[in-house]
Automatic annotation (TrEMBL):
One of its GO terms (molecular function) is hydrolase activity. It comes from the Bacteria. This is N-carbamoyl-L-amino acid amidohydrolase. Keywords: Hydrolase, Membrane, Transmembrane, Transmembrane helix. The chain crosses the membrane at residues 128-148.
Length: 149
């Protein structure tokens, strides 16, 4: 849970919206060596994270909904005309999607916590149900065995 929250915070605010697994690992933990771990985290939580078509880069779903109009070096949103006037190389490498606001990030974190809490409650309900089912099954089997005697 803590790792999902950390990923949401970093991926929501980092200047580039999409990186490969080692890139996000470096940004989130300071080490590229955990790339496989982060690939698993991202894959297990498609409600927050999306892989690109090649399955080698990942981004935050909410951030993908933003337009690609954020200049990462200038730290500003550009108009369509400003983007068209940029050199092709700059358009392809320096324009990203707008970072999430603090409120957007807080909403995602709150959603993650809520989903996690619901999953825990669901597991508790399953654990409560199992002993009841075992008891009912034992009574049923006892009745069948008793009738055979």
């Amino acid at each position: 849970m803590a790792d999902v929250i950390a990923a949401i915070q970093v991926m929501g605010t980092y200047k580039f919206y999409k990186l490969d697994f080692s890139g996000w690992s470096k940004r989130i933990t300071g080490s590229e060596s955990n790339a496989d771990y982060w690939k698993t985290v991202f894959s297990e939580h498609p409600e927050f994270f999306r892989l690109n078509e090649e399955k080698d880069k990942v981004s935050l779903v909410w951030r993908r909904s933003h337009q690609r109009n954020f200049h990462v070096d200038r730290q500003e949103i550009l108009t369509r005309d400003q983007i068209y006037s940029l050199p092709e190389q700059e358009k392809n490498t320096r324009i990203s999607r707008t970072p999430l606001s603090n409120g957007d990030t807080a909403t995602l974190v709150s959603t993650a916590i809520d989903l996690h809490s619901r999953a825990i409650e669901s597991e508790k309900e399953k654990r409560w149900l199992l002993p009841s089912l075992v008891t009912i099954l034992a009574v049923f089997l006892g009745a069948i065995l008793q009738s055979w005697s």
